[in-house]
Amino acid sequence: MSKQPRKIGSDVDELIISDLGVNKDTSSRKIPKFNFRGFNIKHLAILVLIIIVLATIVFVFRFMNDDSATFVWKVNLTKGSENVNNKSVEYTSFSNGLMRISNDGITYVDGNGNVNWTISYNVKDPIYVSNDKYFAIADRNDNNFYIFDEKGLTGENTTTNPIVKIALSKDGVLYVMQSDDNNSYINVFRSSGAVVDISIKTNITEDGMPIDISTSDSGEELAVCYVCLTEDKIYTKATYYNFADAGKNANSKRIVGEFVDEFNDKFLARCHFFNDARSCLVSDDGIYYVSTGDSANPKITSLVDNNSMISSISYNENYFAAIYDDKRLMVYDDKGATLCDRIIDIDYTNFYLSSDYIVFINNNRAVIYDIHGRILFDKELASPIEYVAKRKSLIFTELLVGLIDGVECIRFY
Known about the structure:
- This protein is mainly beta.
- Helix content is about 10%, strand content about 50%.
- The strands form eight sheets. It has a four-stranded antiparallel β-sheet, with no helix packed on it. Strands 2-3-4-5 form a four-stranded antiparallel β-sheet, with no helix packed on it.
- The protein is globular and about 80 Å long.
């Protein structure tokens, strides 16, 4: 699915120059001349040729060699005592590492293989969201939630009604969607778990029942997909709320935009904020891109319609990826421009975006494409793969691999 230069005066410059014993008058400064004697143009040509040959070898090795992956390190972790969604553990990206989730606890392993912390809890059916700074997890159909940062638990709380979904801002603002027999509620909490004085209550016959939520980077904007029921029809709509000045000046409900007619005969299922200025709405007829640059007046700017049903989607702060019924993989940027269009003829059980990588997992096999659809990695490991994420590195291309019994780092060329 859930962000100054110092001016140094001339007096200071004078002081620094004086302390260094440098004559500020450069009119008589002698500049040393480069000695070109012994410089051989053939040596330069040989050096350039060596560089080209080495670059070619690396390119061929990287793209043609099936054994180009190198094991870097592994962190062994014990199994959780309970199953998560019929699996022993789950993983997701967090900061520069992986978060390992089980029903009885959570462990953060950073990108260097350090186990930063392990915290115990009791969560039967976890739902979770994360970004670079915060991670939140809740117990679906129960009342407990927890918020973490790189150092550990920052806050927790208990809701009045069972939790259905959560959305998290980059500042740690958590929106919690709940429901009872007749009404739905959305409440807001700080990263400390403290309650924010914001609450949205809806009734399915009057306002609609929320089915998805997403918040902007700042946490000031909220998008909600509703399914509505009248005497003669069922329809869906999208509502945009603003809890800063724009919403305060709009109306008592803080609604700054609502799209009803656009989805009158369609089914709207998902909403997602890329950042404070851009979001999208996912319907059965395509992807609607919404500009929220003017927070008081969100507008639909474009519709991406590929005349085929979407079977799987994944999104992050920069990209939206979709797999259609004809096995076509499409990737779009946050404005709706097409970055990738290719057929994916592989079996997979999990598909998602990791930074600018597109990841497919099927048991022991991981297949990874770049954001433009070029294949980067296709290997089978010795153990079943739970999750793969791109490791942030300035030098190497590395993957963090979540396994049942631990986390591995793999470098590939």
